[in-house]
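seq as requested:
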Amino acid sequence: MRKTVAMIFAGGRVEELSVLTFHRPKAAIVFGGSYRMIDFALTNLANCELIETVGILSQYKPSSLIDHVGIGLPWDFVGTHRAVRFLPPYTGPEASHWYRGTADALFQNLDFLELHRPDDVLIVSGDHAYQMDYMPLLRFHVERGAELTMGFTPIDLNPSRFGIAELDAEGRVMAYAEKPEKPRSNLASMTVYAFRCNVLMEELKRASEAAQGKQSFYMYDEVIPRIVARRKAYGWVHYGGWEYARTLDGYYRVHQDMLGDVPKFDIAAMNVRTNTMSPRAAPPTPARHMPTAHVSDSIVSTGCRIEGTVEHSVLSPHVHIGKGAIVRNSILWDGVVIEEGAVVDRVIADKRVVVGKGARVGWGNEAPSEELPKSLTCGAAVLGADAHVPAGAQIGRNCILYPGVGPDQLSAGPVESGRTVRAPTR
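struct tokens:
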């Protein structure tokens, strides 16, 4: 049987997600209440019988990601045969520098591949949400004698945002272009690649020599085009759901799609594995709906205490909704507190946010975000970790509050729609 090692790209911040990636990479952001984005890749790999070793390539503020993944126990990557390893940048006898991109991250870890000596390397992104059986793709890769097999999925809305491929009847990649202005197909790259290991190593070494002196070194512009043009590259088409969620609008939309009688994105049906034990020594407590609570069409995680009204919202663990408070169409992360009488409408709140008594977050018109006019147009107010909205304050729509913003920055009067408020620098 051929041996396959998996590598996860999990190092990027993603500027379009603003304060949500201020303290963490996109792979570590909360998704669906109780999960992290990397859970989808890890779950898919855990369900693939060929995968025994996983390397996680992470660079940007990896602490929360490392805490969450731990030793890989929730995904069964433990024991004598299965393992997960973080592969951060490191110093060596010849050279040392930060990862300059996805190709450079792989190049700097060729020793990891040489140690495990796999026949094939399966590379996936750690910041996409989808359920996929990688086995058919890997079988297809072997049967075709492919040197590279790429995963694609049909995209109907604005496919020019992605790498786009044209395939022949046998699945051979006839053309590939990264974010073309006029796409010639709707098959978008999922950032799922199966490489023959010796080919990957050879191409990375060649591309690294060519990239000397460059500030960036990426797979999509340094390695993939050359293999498509000169080697046997095939495409495997995945027809299941796949969520990119790279913008604040996209992140907000997919959470709204999780709700309703027939969710467009049914996260409950995906059997996603996660680490529920990472921040605590005991299992989380059950959620409590107090006598004054009213909850409808919402996802409520463990440890929540609800005394007010929650409608069409997604709540992470240990959220507290006070008496008379109203939460609508919102996404509240771990430990958020909405105090008595506050109204929260279309809000994305990072961890430990406090909205004071009688405050109103999400009001007024929908002026575009002054900081991210292309990423934040849905009308949601985005509150960074540990932000504290004082009692009686008003925050408009498409606003961004940076982590740690508090009464000193919010007491002067209403924050009009589209505005960004930053905490003082240390």
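DSSP finds nine helices and 32 strands in the chain.
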